[in-house]
Here is the input.
Amino acid sequence: MAYETASPSGLRRVVAASMAGTVVEWYEFFLYASASTLVLGTVFFPPSDDPFSGIIAAFVTYAIGFIARPLGGIVFGHLGDRYGRKKLLQASILIIGAATFLIGCLPGFAQVGYLAPALLVLLRFAQGFAIGGEWGGAVLLVAEHSPREQRGFWASWPQAAVPVGNLLATLVLFALSSTLSQDAFLGWGWRIAFWLSAVIVLIGWYIRTKVTEAPIFLEMKQAQEQEASKSFGPLEVVRRYPRGVLVAMGLRVAENILYYVVVTFSIVYLTQTVKEATSATLLILAGAHVVHFLVIPLFGRLSDRWGRKPVYATGAVLGAAWGFFAFPMMNTGNPVVIWAAIALGLVFHAAMYAGQPAIMAEMFPTRMRYSGVSLGYQVTSIFAGSLAP
Here is the structure.
C-alpha cells in the first residue's frame, strides 16, 4: 500500500498536533478513572458501611464510557472517512472537554439524590463517545503521513501521548490530595482537576487547527467525488474486511485487560488492601507513566526493525505472567518495589500497544480506514477494558 508521505518537518508537526490532542483526551479520560477509585464513589452514590460499594458503583459508571466508545468509533469513523480526520479530531476534543468540565460542576448525592449518578452517567457516556472517535483519527493522521519503513515508530507517538495525559491527571490529583485535607478534597478540591481541562482543551484544539489532511486522503476524496456511487461506513468495512476487523479486535484484548488492571485496579489494591496512602500511590503511578512514555516509541522502532508480530507476541507472553509476580511485589509495601511492579506491567503493555496503529492502518484502504480501525479498536473495550478493573 503506497503512501505519499510528508517531509520530516511536516511529519513532526503532524505528530505534535496528534499528540497534543491525545494528551488532552486521555488526561480527562483517566482523570475519571483515577477519581472513580478516590472520590466519585463517595460523592455521587448513597452512603454505605462497605467502602468498596461506592467504588464498585463508580466503576459501573466507568464502564459506561467503554460501552459508548464503539458508538463513537462508528459515528466518527463514518464521518471521518467522508469529511476528513482533522475536522472530526477537533470535534472530539471539544466534546470530551465539555463533558469533563461539567462533571466538575455536578452536585453530589447529598444535594440532589439519585439525580447525581444519573447526570454522571450521561456525561461519562459523552466522554466515552468522544474517546471512541479520537484514537482512530489521531493515529491515522500520523500513519498516513509516515513512510512505510518508519510507520511503526512515527505512529507509536500518539500512543505515547496516552501515558502523558495519564501522568498529568495523576500529578494534578496528587497535588490536590496531598495539599488539601481529606474533607476539602472530597468536598471541592477534586473538582479543580476537572475544571482545569478547559485550559488544556483550548490549547489542544488550537494545535489541531494547524494540521493538514494527509495527501493520500485528499487524493481519495477527489477520486471518490468523481464516482457516481459512494459507499462508506462500518457496514461496508465489516462486509468487505471482516478478517481485518476481527484481527484488530483480537489485538486489543490482552493489551486492554493488562493496561486497566495495571493502571486502574492497582490504585484500589494499593490504597484498600496494601493500605498505601493515596498521595504515595499516585506518585508511584506517575513514575511508572514516565517509563511507559519512554518505551512506547522504542517498541514502535523495534516493530519496524524486527516486525510487528514478534514484538507484540513478546509483550503478550510477559504480560500474561505479570500478575503472578506483581501483586506479591506490591504486598511488600516498599515504594520502589511497587513502582517496579507497575512499571514492568506498563513496559509489557507498551510492547503490544506501540505497533497497533501501523498494523491496523495497513489492514484497510483509505476510504474506509477510519471506520475499520475505530470499530476494531473500540468494540473490544466493552468486554476487555470496562470489565478488567
